[in-house]
Amino acid sequence: MTSRDAVLVAATVAVGLMAGLFFAFSVAVMPGLAKAADRTLVDAMQRINTAIRNGWFLLVFGGSLLLCAGAVVLCLRDGGRGPLPWVIAATVLHLAVLAVTFGVSIPLNDRLDAAGDPGDPGGLADAAGVRERFEAAWVRWNLVRTLLCTGALGCLGWALVLSGRAAAEAAFRTGHM
User: Fold this and answer.
1) Are the beta carbons of 48 and 78 closer than 8 angstroms?
2) Distance between CA 112 and CA 99 in Å, rounded?
3) CB 167 within 8 A of CB 23
4) Quick check: 57 and 25 in contact, CB under 8 A?
5) Separation in Å, CA 74 to CA 69, 126, 142, 149
6) What are the tens digits of pLDDT across the range 56-92?
7) How far apart are CA 108 and CA 119, in angstroms?
8) Is 153:77 a contact under the CB 8 Å cutoff?
């Protein structure tokens, strides 16, 4: 396995983890919280926003983009022209995920956190209003992140296929099979 392929595999795994996280929120977490009381949704999302700020999440969240960019560089260096457009597409899609995260999701989370403590009767005066200003927009933009990140994952998967094909063809041509 070449260093390019190793980085491609690592990028694929990291982007896959992110796509899975966004997907889980789209199909399980938010639909489950949609059935909860206003204060419960606000409290749960505030707790999730706090819990997700950890080293493992930050490593995968930031590392996935670095790995995608590294794969682009290695494809250019190694002459991996077949997978290169797909790795570039994955990187662009992942950059769009980051743009949505920093431009929409984090500001929504910050406003939710600033709304007050739902456990304190005086700490959150208008739970229904807070929820209304948060939930629909957050769910919609998380779906966008899910689709973008899943698209990036698909591009990386196809880049791996193309890279494997190129390696097999090279081995066949040189008689190293």
Assistant:
1) no
2) 19
3) no
4) no
5) 9, 52, 31, 21
6) 999 999 999 999 999 999 999 877 678 999 999 999 9
7) 20
8) no
